[in-house]
Amino acid sequence: MADRTDNRRTNRERPPLGEREAVILRSVVTRFIQTAAPVGSKVLAVEGVVDLSSASIRNTLSTLEGLGYLDHPHTSAGRVPTDLGYRAYVDELMDRTGVAPVEQQLLRAGLEQLYGDVESLMRETSRLLGQFTNLLGVVLSPRLATGVLERIDVVPLSSSRLMFVVSVRGGFVKTIMAEFDAEVRRSDLDRVVQAMNERLAGLTLEEVRATAAERMRDLDSGDRTGVVRLVLHQAATLFAELPDERQAEVGGAQQIVTQPEFQAAEDVRSVIELLENQDVIVHLLEADAAPFDANGRAVVKIGQEGGLADRFGGTFSVVKAQYRLGDTTGSLGVIGPKRMDYAYAVTLVEYLAGLLSGTAPDA
To answer: Can you give the pLDDT at residue 152?
Structure first.
């Protein structure tokens, strides 16, 4: 059996593949993705993958196993890909194709009426990701901290409570309640709110948080309402994004449990545990996030790379990309077994990221 430590080699340490090894590794991964059954030399010989005898193919499979690209289950004469084999396939060997025109039309039709409703858009996108891939489709709400402040409003709820409404360009709204121990006349409040918006609107929430004190210092000294001082005191909460404010919409739970990897009760429990832990899902899609890529390129994390090794033993892989709504960025992707159709998952994730961002090509 191949040394398990080989599966954790980095790309830089990955053993080089000759032409024959590359062809056979691609064929093993492709067939295993399709069938979930270990792949033997006789199958590859019958399919005519390469013009080699079954014995020559068997020797090449042994070589790939020795290099750590394939593993050899005890109960089968066939081989299955290791994490390293999947990584080589994704990085070098898989064929990329575009989303079929009929699928593009279905995806556009499912989303085009929802662009004014962020929650519905996220929910439908996650559903479509799950439906089209038979995996878990996940969409994270955009990061408000990267958004541009459109305006801030202050609404008196009672003599002792105010509600701050922070509107971010693109249709996102955040509300915060605050205790207040002074009577405020509406005319004074409106005047102060207008002055604050003149100083802060048009800045990102990160910029507001960092510079609000400097920008509103003179307003604070002349403010009889005390609202400016309260805004400055609450700036870290008002203009920052707290971890529990990120929302994750997940679709495809019914589809993923039909995969062969999740037929046993304990395997289904791992899916349920993942679905119930939104913090883990957010971490999976946000970890190692690069600056927004206007092309919506997908990132693939396989098995041990995916951030779930400690809890789920490297069972899952993640394909994810960033999208942009207005001035804010979020993430979407699919989570599923390592034996997923990476070529299609990458293609679909990238297309939907482009569709949400307004950069996807027309069918």
So the answer is: 92
* Per-residue confidence (pLDDT) for residue 92, from 0 to 100: 93
In CATH, what number does 145-243 get? 3.30.390.60
Instruction: Tell me the C-alpha distance between 343 and 338, whole Å.
Output: 13
- Per-domain residue ranges for the chain? 4-93, 101-143+246-357, 145-243
What does the DSSP 8-state code read for residue 91?
I
Candidates 179, 241, 180; CA nearest to 209 is 241
Q: Rounded CA gap, 59 and 64, in Å?
A: 9
Quote the pTM value: 0.79
Going edge to edge, which strands form the sheet with 328-337?
248-251, 136-140, 328-337, 316-325, 299-301
Identify the burial level of 156 via C-beta atoms within 10 angstroms of its C-beta, where 0-12 means exposed, 13-18 middle and 19 or more buried: middle
CATH number, span 101-143+246-357: 3.30.450.40
Q: Give the CB-side neighbour count of residue 320, counting CA atoms within 13 A.
A: 26
Q: What's at 237, amino acid-wise? A: T
DSSP 113-163: GGTT-HHHHHHHHHHHHHHHHSSEEEEEPPBGGGSBEEEEEEEEEETTEEE
User: What's the topology of domain 4-93?
Assistant: Arc Repressor Mutant, subunit A (1.10.10)
Q: Which residues, given as ranges, of the chain have pLDDT below 50?
A: 1-10
